[in-house]
Design goal:
With 260 residues, this protein is of the alpha/beta class. The chain is 40% helix and 21% strand. It has helices at 35-50, 79-90, 130-140, 147-151, 165-177, 182-202, 220-230, 244-257; strands spanning 2-8, 12-19, 22-30, 59-63, 75-76, 96-100, 105-110, 116-122, 210-213, 234-235. The strands form 2 sheets. A 5-stranded mixed β-sheet has the order 3-2-1-4-5. β6 and β7 form a beta hairpin. The longest helix has 21 residues, at 182-202. The protein is globular, with a radius of gyration of 19 Å.
Length: 260
Amino acid sequence: MITAGCDIGSLTAKAVILKDNKIIGQEVIRVKTNPAESANEVLRLALEKAGVSQSDIRAAVGTGYGKDHISFAASTQSEISCHAKGAWWNLPSVRTIIDIGGQDAKAIRIDEKGNVARYIYNDKCAAGTGRFLEVMARAMEVKLEEMGALSAQAKEKIRISNQCVIFAETEVVSLINEGRDVRDIINGLHHAMANRVASLAKSIEVHEDVVMTGGVAKNSGMFNALSEGLGVPVKALPIDPQINGALGAALFAAELAAGK
């Protein structure tokens, strides 16, 4: 049985194709202006990788900010439910999921059966989100994907005091003008962001194992900083962490197709 999950976020669109509980195709693209076009395009690319056609799909489920614009989805699920389902499918020992997306951050606590017990999210401020790192990378003229490796080379601790993206960008520019090492600044940014997200997660109690999902989870510097901020190790999922929400949606689709 083949099913699909599609996650249309604020910055990226993701799709996962499942066959008999195994991932056979996946794709991540930058979103287009029209969320419906993003959904169709990311599904088409994921299907190509899977080597199957859309008519082979028994059921598809959508999630994310643009979930209501996914024309091929038989139903929709919340991002909270999908991230919980995807993470637990990968790692049944997980109890806390930290998802940092383009424009929000979520902390989700689940029980031993994978059911959502508590959750909290921040979508009112860009601080603590992928957007925060994007703006700072542009201000420092470094590539976003290089920030983790650069952070690992930091030699001096720098404290970024401003949480607001606008004020933090001004602070970063001032540090650059003072001649401070960019690697130290990036490390400081990771810790500032991680501490904010850790504070959010601690408000619902952090239980181990802890995993991080979303595009920011590809940044090794954020992994290390979040582990320090939480005071417990943050584990990596054995998949691209950015597709976890779409994976959860595909798992819901499998249940839908099976009549559960």
